[in-house]
User: Fold this.
Amino acid sequence: MPGSCSNPGCAAQENWPAHRSGCKSSTTKPTGNGIKCVMLPSYEEVTIHPGDAIFAAAPAPITHKFGFPLVLRRSSTVHDEDNMHATWLMISPDHGLAPPEWQRGVGDCLVARADKEPLDTSTLAAITDYVSDIMNAFSDDQEPSVIERRFYDRKKLDRFIREHVQMQQDYKATQSNPDLFT
Assistant:
């Protein structure tokens, strides 16, 4: 899996392929140690060292605006694949568009909570759906003040996350018990 050096100062290593042979990747499967975060687009849970350089990054603007700051780090030097959910997390809360460097060829991205608390896949999935709703509001030409009142509130996000997680649990329950609908 693409990654970066486990030494916090090496995370931005420009020549990662050459540097990799002497380093241990900072991104691993969950072990109970470190900080739980999520790799996009696969939604794979991984852990990272608390000193990882991702925590020095500025929070994604939209997530900061609604009160759940997330930080992102591209995890490979090869950025030939698009990563729709990472792009969504990087949109501006003012106009609903991501900067050009986040619109194409983003590749795999690591996503963590800026406060270093654990981030699980169900919470991140809910947040990306919430951001999708914000983008839809922009594309429907809603006034920025309406979007602000409707979405940029941590309590509203928390309610959305709870409902989204419950909806996913209900869906999984129906998938494991198809007789409910016969």
Q: What stands out?
A: The first strand starts at residue 35 and ends at 40. Helices lie at 16-20, 61-65, 84-89, 121-139, 144-151, 154-176. The CA atoms of residues 62 and 93 lie 5 Å apart. DSSP finds six helices and four strands in the chain.
